[in-house]
Each structure stands twice: as C-alpha cells, then as structure tokens.
Design a protein that fits this description.
Low-confidence stretches: none
Structural class: alpha+beta
Distance between the termini: 38 Å
Number of domains: 1
Number of helices: 3
CATH architecture: 2-Layer Sandwich
CATH topology: GMP Synthetase, Chain A, domain 3
Shape: globular
Length: 122
C-alpha cells in the first residue's frame, strides 16, 4: 500500500516465486530480460529447490530472436546481463532455450503449460 492508500498489483500470486525467503515477481524479471536485444520472449517459472524445502529456483524459458542461436557465447552473455540487472536471488539458475514458447490465442505465454512440463519431469 502506498502513502495514498492504493494497492498496486504487481504479479499473479501463482507467478510469484519464493527464493530463499525473498519474493521474486516473475513479471519484473521478464521485463528486465526482454530488454536484451537477443531475447524475443521469456517466461520465468519456479522449480522446487532440492536443497531448501519451501524455496524455489528461478528458471528462465527463453525464445531467442530469429537468427540468434543458443550458443555458449549467447548463453554467457545473457547470464552476465541478468547478473548485472537483477538481484542475486532474482537471477535465473536454470536457462531453457526453445524454438518457441506456448502461447494463448491472444499471444500471451502459457506459463501453466511450462509449469505442467516441470511437474511431469519430477
């Protein structure tokens, strides 16, 4: 709540991650990462942290712009960019590069589908 008594909704609760006790808003991380010139789309989802029960790991699912390949150099550039623009706890620990991300009919990323993939892999 701000000083005028207004509440600003930042992200859906199910899209908010808890990383080592910190709240990570996926939309904030996505907004930062999509400013990188190589990224077309990105979705941030949480993975269960095997070392910390109740905590999550930040995973970035990335669709690069046409003509950009996920080479080691590109991956390192994106990791460096993230570390320079995000807090340590907001930084993706897992990066997944895909040809395309699942989208709704109106063009929004289907994070639910990405999360379901992860639960199938558990």
């Amino acid at each position: 709540m701000d000083e005028d008594g207004f509440i600003t909704i930042v992200d859906r609760t199910k899209d908010m991650l808890i990383v080592s006790g910190y709240k990570v808003y996926s939309v904030h991380v996505e907004d930062i990462l999509t400013k990188h010139p190589d990224i077309e789309l990105v979705a941030i989802i949480g993975l269960k942290d095997p070392d910390r029960p109740g905590s999550e790991i930040v995973k970035a699912v990335v669709q690069l712009k046409e003509g950009i390949e996920p080479t080691d150099s590109v991956k390192e550039t994106l990791k460096k960019y993230a570390s320079e623009h995000l807090s340590k706890y907001e930084n993706p620990r897992v990066w997944d590069f895909r040809e395309e991300l699942p989208l709704t009919l109106v063009g929004k990323i289907l994070k639910r589908a990405l999360r379901e993939e992860e639960t199938k892999n558990d």
